[in-house]
Structure formats: C-alpha cells, structure tokens
Prior knowledge:
The chain is mainly alpha-helical.
Amino acid sequence: xxxNVVKTDYLSLFFARLARPYSVLGLLLLITAARLWVxxxxxxxxxxxxxxxxLWGQDLQLGYYSKPPLIxxxxxxxxxxxxxxxxxxxxxxxxxxLLTSLILWQTGNRIGEAMAGRCAAILWxxxxxxxxxxxxxxxxxxxxxxxxxxxxFILAAHxxxxxxxxxxxxxxxxxxxASLAKYxxxxFIPCLLIFLLIAATRxxxxxxxxxxxxxxxxxxxxxxxxxxxxxxxxxxxHLGENANLEKQSYSLASxxxxxxxxFGVAGPVTFLLLLLLPFYRQMRTGLIGGLHAFIWPVLAVxxxxxxxxxxxxxxxxxxxxxxxxxxxxxxxxxARQLPVRLILPAMAINLVxxxxxxxxxxxxxxxxxxxxxxxxxxxxxxxxxxxxxDRLAAQNNAKTLIxxxxxxxxxxxxxxxxxxxYIALPRATKTAGNGNHYQRSYPLDDTIARxxxxxxxxxxxxxxxxxxxxxxxxxSTQISQRxxxxxxxxxxx
Length: 493
C-alpha cells in the first residue's frame, strides 16, 4: 500500500500567516529597514532631479518652474533637521512607501474583503517600481501616500453609514495635497467621476459630494495655482514642452514599449494579473469593480501620450494603488481561480527582483553583469567634476562657475553647497523656449562677478562672449564600459 502523502497548500499557508497582523507588520518593517540600509551603504551620489529638489528646499516657495512645491517643502524640513547627506536626502523614500502600504492595509480592511488589506500592504512593497522608488526621492513617492489616502476616504464614504460629505471633503484635501506633490494627482478627479457613475447609489448625495470634493481639492492645492498666476503659468508651459505633443509620432512601438515597461515596473506577473481580472464578472461589480475607475483611465491617458509622442514608465504610477487593492481583493472574490493562485508567485518574483535591485544599488554596480550602457552611469563622475572645479576656482580666485547642462548645474550645487560660488547656466540661445530651472534662476550676464570658470563638455571653447583662456585643465571620467565624460575647464577674468 502507498503511504499517505500530505500535500502542502502553500497558498493557504501564506494566507494563514496573513491572519497574524504582527507578522505582516514585521515583514513590512523588515523590508523598509533593508531599503534604508541600502541607501546608507550605497556609494552612488544623488541624481539630477534629487539634487534639484534639494536645492528648491533651500529656497521655499509656493511653486517651482517644473513641479509643485511639496517635495521641496519636505526636503527643506529634512535638511533643517538632519543636514545635507545622501542618506537624509533619500531616507524619506522608503518611509513614504511604508506609509502607502499601511494606508492600503486599512483601505483593504475598509472594503471588507478577508485578508485583502494585509495582502495589499505586502504586494505594494514588493512592486519593482516601489523598490526603485525607495532608493531615490521623487515626486511619485510623495504623491502616492496622499493619492492612496484619497482613495481610502472615497471608499470609506461609500461604506460608512454616516459622514459621506465629510469623507468626500477629506478625500479632496488628500488629493489637493497630492497635486502639490505632482500634477498627476489631478487624474483623480476624472477617475472619481467615473467611479461615482458606476459605483455610487441613489441613497448617497454623490453630486453634492463631488462638488465638495472638487472644492476642497482647489483649496488644498491653491498654493501652486497662486504661484503660477504670478509667474505667467510657466509650469504649464513646461508641462506642454515635456509632453512634446507638437512633434507627434503616432508610434505603436512607443505605445507597446510603454506597456512592456509596465511588466517591469509593476512586476511581470502582477501586471499580467491586472490584465486578466476584468474578464472575471466578480471583479467588475460593487466597490471592488469601482476600483477599475482609478486604474484604466490613468493607463489610457498615458498610453495615448506614448502613442502620440513618448511616455516614461513611471507616469502611470497613480494607477498602482488601486491595482494593488484590486489584486488583493481577488482573494476573497475568486476563491481558488487562476488569478488568486498567481498572487503568491507575483509577490515572490517581485521581492526577488527588488532584492536584486537593492543589492546592485548597495554595491553601486551590476558587477560582471554590467551592461555596456550601464543605467547607473548618470550617477557617476559628478563629485570628481565638482572637486576639480572647486580646486581650479580656488587657484584662480574664480567667483562664478558656469555649468554646461541642467545635470552639471544640479550636481555642482549639491557638491559645492556652502562654498559661496554663483553657479550659472546660460541659455544656448536667447529664444530657447522657457529654459529650465537653472537657466531661469541662475542666468549669466556681464554683472555677474568674475573671474568666471566654465565647465564644458568636450574641447570647444564656451559659446559665451568673454576673453577665454585656453583650457586650464581637462578631466576624463569613465562612467560606463563604453562611455566617458570628457570635460574642459576655461577661465575668463
């Protein structure tokens, strides 16, 4: 006779573990602690955008040229409390994503699906996009907990017996603040309108609720509108230039490239599951079905952008909280059907991918697997540039450093903070659009103190009217297997 074999159901075992909230919380804290350690261990300096956000934080305003102000306010406060370092610059990233996961936990509980909240919390921290977003500080990291809070209040408004308008007002405040982090937060407004059309009931004053929501969004986001009113709406001109819709390509390759990238940033199995769920009737009804309203409109807009011109993979980040909730709620609605069976492999694959990414970032290299192009090259060589510029400026008593690009301007400000240099970035031509933050805020003219030290990529003299001496120094830094950054330094007295 064959012996009895007990077949282990790993999915049931996993969800049994989810029944222990302290186990889930411990896992979330462990993942977050590991990501903080990666930030502390990494030799990689800040990226261009990170340095720019930090610089904004040294001059707090109601708005900035290319972005709303919340990330600058956050980094300004962190700098005031903890000073300047790569760790203090980036440490809020994993903490903000931990906060997002905890809000998703409570949102899943609010919907009432068994284990949905705990599953959503773990799934969120497993996403590759969140793993990368936990290493850098970005506007997405600041926006997402507020967007998720807005989603929580909307679902609470439609599950609570009382307080409908109060919940809608709270959602409006959250989304208004989310739009102070990133203008993509405003996608929530049309998403909510669709949600109300498909999920609201006649017993709820949803028309009045939508009005209250929009009013509180306007109030909470008013700082950036006031700033733009007094600055000729320059941010919206920049967004138009960034979208690049004037040069429409109608590219299916760009569209499929964006969709393919979602399998990477959301996780290969995770995004596949998202594509499968609409085919299940159980996932298209009630409040759970209403979550689709916060996913597909965002993806549709970015897909259209990708087809017309181009789109970065992270531009769809606003759709991820609802996506994670929808997948987590599938456990209660689909029982043991295929999507539920794939949730555990999806998390496992995501966590392996993010662990590999964390190891790469902690070491600062892909090691023997480094591709020739090396995606980390943009973070390399800037400190050497700044140290060389500082040494040459001191030797020649230079008062002004002239950068050659937005990247060089951003990293010169970071690495030479407190040195007292005026770091200028002249426009290539006087008619070169609105320029970038540095060209607008740190222009160059004859009133700027001399001597000038210009950092130029290559060996050509600066395209600036001045009596330039022959290059007083050159610097070549290898930033990848096939690329080096070649700089020359020119002096004008």
